[in-house]
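quick one if you have a minute, typing this from the bus. theres a chain ive been looking at and ive put its sequence and its fold in token form underneath. please have a look and point out which stretches look like helix strand or loop to you. anything you notice is useful, everything is just below.

***
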Amino acid sequence: MQTPETGKLLKLGDTDETIATPEEDIRNRHVKDRDGEDLGKISNLLVDESERKVRFIEIASGGFLGIGQDKTFIPVEAITSITGDEVRIDQTRERLSNAPAYDPELVRERDTYGSILDYYGYGPFWGPEYRYPDYPNYRY
């Protein structure tokens, strides 16, 4: 069985696109793991060019004024709650620290998406069983 072709993922910050409702733009919000530990801030959103849906959040941590920051991608499915200044995910700090290495050159590689999704325990968003998360219904 063939799967549909995945649209190219683009960093929202590298496009002219915007979030329709500004309060739903989660960039620059703090990210906390399932234990409440601070992981950093959301620095960008990776959006599927063809479906215009957020597929990953890019978390930046450490560094100073954007220099020396560590970055990692987290599937949007990992988000468990969103408030005005915070996003919580269902993963731990340790799990993030062992995640596949961030490589901005591989952002558009389907194998890269699959390995990140697999690492965090999620199926591919291009699979037949996939269902997009019910944002904003998981807000608290």
User: Anything to note?
Assistant: Strands lie at 9-11, 30-32, 38-48, 54-61, 70-75, 79-82, 86-89.
